[in-house]
Amino acid sequence: MGIHILVCAKLVADPEVPPSSMEVNVEEKRVIVRGASPVISPFDESALEAAIRIKETQEAKITLLTAGRNLSKAVVLKAMATGVDEAIIAEDNALDPALLDSWSTAKILAELAKQAGSFDLILTGRQAADTNAGQVGVGLSYFLNIPAVTVAQKVELADNKVIVERVLPNGFEVVEASTPVLVTVGGELGELRLPNVKSMKAAKQLPQKNFSLNDLQIDVPGQAMVETTELTPPSRERDCVLVEGETQEEAGKYLAQKLREDKII
Fold it and tell me: Can you give the residue range of the structural domain that contains 253?
């Protein structure tokens, strides 16, 4: 079978929707996105692309892990059509984003990873497009007791080792780690390729394993470690000052004085 790669993918509301589609529900302490189609979180797409590139160079099996409620079968199928061999899914009405935090999400993914059997590499996005917490990947490595390498722009496997180009503020560093290992992938690696029609049809025949929280013996509210106490929309204040003058030169002079007073220039 070669190497076994697990890729974690989160379904989120399309982050490209305009801000007008988003509403902060103060009472429920959540952000509601209206009219947005679900997509795989972009960083998770990069993680999947990393797995496919490895599969192109050596014998490998890719297993997609995802969890949520009311998951879009079309989105999952599209992801599988890019080069995935099987999917392991936790779908449950209790998987409400308002009840989940990074800790509980990592716990669920750890249980799904165990259902996949032995593995060599786990790839996740560096962070999700909705919460931007960037904690699930390293949390998952904690639950599975394996090392983690973060923010990769390139991932390769050779001789039971993973070689990662890890992004730094002023460049990158090369890190090696023995398998099994978890790597979080950044957008620097590149976008996920688009599947063709033939791959989409073939993906419908790929195996899927579906679990409820009862199957995994997980109590989501009992696993959450973070409590949201308040969520309010950002306040926007605008103060417009009209600068006038007898001539354009005089108006420009007054404008410069005002900008100096406000310490803008």
Answer: 235-265
